[in-house]
Amino acid sequence: MREELASRNDLDVQLLAVDPHDEASARFLLKESGFDTSEVHFPLLMDPSLTVSATYGVAFQMKIHVEWSNRPATFIIDRSGVIRYARRAKTFSDRPKPKEILAELKKLE
Amino acid sequence: MLRLLILLGIAVSTEAATLGGGQQEGVTPSEWIARFTQQWDNSVWGNRPRKEGGGYMLPADCNLWKLRMETMQALVAAGPDAVEPLLEALRSQDVATRILAAQTLGFLGKHVPSKPLVKALREDPEASVRLYAADALGMIGGVDVRESLELLKESEKNKDVRKHIMYALGRKNRDGAAAAADRLAAWDISKMDTAHVGRMAPDFELATVNGKRYRLSSFRGKKAVVLVFIYGDT
Fold first, then answer.
1. Residue B209: which of A30, A57, A85 has the nearest Cβ?
2. Can you tell me the ipTM of this complex?
3. Is B70 a member of any domain?
């Protein structure tokens, strides 16, 4: 989905990702998965204080191996800043398919 | 003691009211920890089948994560006064309490002696405690800490804990950790869980790995922002 949205500049949509770690681990993880930090085509935002994660109601809700991490979640925010869609995962692999996101985006004027 | 009982009583009966009501005055760090230990219930991870999130995902209607966030915030805001009670909590019989203590001590950074965390990283039977002890040691920093981490990297058996030891060793300084601690200490807990359909998206400013800052509201006027919360293990 990230790739698809990032490549669709015509949509006038901004993709933002939030990760609950900080710079030290994010750099390590990106490197480990073969990414250069300059090659990520959307802002990957760090939330090490967990304040944004808690504000959005996802902090400490999933154990990934032995870490208490964020529940995966997707929000769509419209032109005026109102949340129009929110989906909080029930399992670690539960996330909206790209076409579901695109369908939600179509609903917005 | 009376104050603790009152706090516990109130907390049990009106969880929602104690959350989102702003910072609580006059509650000591020890009382915060005792309240967490009493209210946290490890069985909330659930007995559902694993394919429905059982064992690792909190049920959608479970609010105990707020207790954890609220407790951590209060302890970090308490600053140096919270260190001794947290070091004691690091030796608790209760696993969730030890995990909370290890994680929170990282945010208290320069006020925290590294020895008890090194001991936890070396000896705690619970991998989660060791993982957060590694994080905390990274946030504390220093030459002694580095040496301990280098040693424990070799003996640690859990691969996730080892990874976090690597993160800790990868830190160049403690600026990032200090900034995160300040941000958590200053956070207004009434913002907790305020992102809901039909409401204004709570605004925030966060930085990327490369230090570039983004404010959500600066994208106002774009057709949409798709905001995705991920977990860094993917």
1. A30
2. 0.90
3. yes
